[in-house]
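Per reviewer request, we include the raw input and output of the structure prediction for the construct analysed in the revised manuscript.
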Amino acid sequence: MKAHDGMYIGGAWRPAAGADTIAVVNPADEQVIAHVPAGTAADVDAAVRAARAAFPGWAATPPAERAARIGALRDVLASRRDEIAETVTAELGSPLPMSQAVHAGVPVLVVGSYAELAATYAFEERHGNSTVLLEPVGVVGAITPWNYPLHQIVAKVAPALAAGCTVVLKPAEDTPLTAQLFAEATAEAGLPAGVFNLVTGLGPVAGQALAAHEDVDLVSFTGSTAVGKRIGATAGGAVKRVALELGGKSANVILPGADLARAVNVGVANVMSNSGQTCSAWTRMLVDADRYEEAVALAVAAVAKYVPGERVGPLVNAKQQARVRGYIEKGIEEGARVVAGGPGAPLGTGYYVSPTVFADVTPEMTIAQEEIFGPVISILKYEDEDDALRIANGTVYGLAGAVWAADDAEAVAFARRMDTGQVDINGGRFNPLAPFGGYKQSGVGRELGSHGLAEYLQTKSLQF
């Protein structure tokens, strides 16, 4: 795969400050496909200085002009969709159809939505004798994960650009090639030098330096709750703003009277997508006692269609593979019943895990409480709706979820009582304008749509 051997800073590819590199491994065959530079604090400092220098000019650019540049970025990403998909497949292991439709396709929609918002958003409001100005926060430090390498980038960078902020991006070390393609796209779209900057590197080095940098005004991070807490503490010491999109343990609640077959099949597909490496995956399926065994049988039949190496890709690396298999072993140890899959490796090469379904899972089990981040579903039994609500809300997380019922009104009534940031009602479709983010330890702030744009704005009032 093509890889740059430098950092994208101030509108140009520059040599890294140090000589260390990071190997990029294809998780499907465990082969090294490229090397990228391992950024240091010096690289981060150079990128932040470039972003700071570019900020006044970009912040003063009329919103319509910012919208035009973001629209051009959307067009470039659309024109390079095949290249992006192939790159994501190579460094993440996602099956190519998934990479084409989701990893390369959805970001085009998201960037396009911010091109429209930048042109139409009310950056000034009138309240009585006051004019309220919504102004860009400043320099944004964006730290993104590997599971959706382009989507997570555009979900931060596009609204930041629309707001008038400048950005320094530190992508995940497992999937840096997609980030380099994005940097190329920003240049091709004509973004002014320094408005977007890229530093590849390790989280404890480059990521920590970016979060702690005194000239970064806002840190936007997506990743584990544990790392998010550390970033929040670092940013809090400098009284800088943070946006944190963290872990999840989402409930797929199937109420009596719902279309059980559809709810189970869609629920299984939701978890198997991206090999279960999705923070919002509905990994806990809640079914009433009367239909529990039927749901288990439906889930077993559904998961059989997800063959490793075909419809289900590998996990991102060997560490993640071992972690997920460890959770499967923990579930067995605590008394859950494996009805599909198990801890064994399904293929001899690649970081694959067998798609696994657990029955007889109780709410206090580890697999029902902790984020596994793999193709593992736990099916839990409830007695009535209050019991289902107790189980659904009974974790430290609150990122997403689903409710299925005989009609939408019944599902909505249940969803209103769930402690979670986003709920799909009877299979509701993805909406790039809907705010996404969590309650409790699933994060702070929102991404996507106008709520995502608001994260990168600060408020000033003028009285006259």
